């Protein structure tokens, strides 16, 4: 992919993020979050919002175990 490729940020049901070329169909199990831009812009967005790398199901199990 070249530097002119536009990306979009995707998130899956486990709250994991991925960059995906904006002109390619979104794969099953992923949803766009509304952020598009260069690879650097999208990566910066993901760095800002994805602060807990654990899958959602693991976070929930850990929270329930603490309760």
The ordered H/E elements are EEEHH
Question: What's the Cα radius of gyration?
Answer: 14 Å
- Order of strands across the main sheet: 2-1-3
Number of strands: 3
Helix content: 25-40%
InterPro entries: MbtH-like_dom, MbtH-like_sf, MLP_fam
Protein name: MbtH family NRPS accessory protein
GO biological process, one term: siderophore biosynthetic process
Organism: Streptomyces galbus
Report on this model:
By secondary structure, the chain is of the alpha+beta class. The chain has one domain (5-62): Rubredoxin-like. It is built from two helices and three strands; from the N terminus they run βββαα. The chain has helices spanning 39-49, 56-66, and strands at residues 7-12, 17-21, 30-37. A three-stranded antiparallel beta sheet has the order 2-1-3, covered by helices on one side. The longest helix has 11 residues, at 39-49. It is elongated, with a radius of gyration of 14 Å. The N and C termini lie far apart (46 Å). The mean pLDDT is 92.
């Amino acid at each position: 992919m070249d530097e002119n490729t536009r990306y979009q940020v995707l998130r899956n049901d486990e709250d994991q993020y991925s960059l995906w070329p904006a002109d390619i169909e979104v794969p099953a199990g992923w949803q766009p979050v509304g952020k598009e831009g260069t690879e650097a812009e999208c990566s910066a967005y993901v760095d800002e919002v994805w602060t807990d790398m654990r899958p959602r199901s693991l976070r929930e199990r850990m929270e329930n175990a603490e309760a």
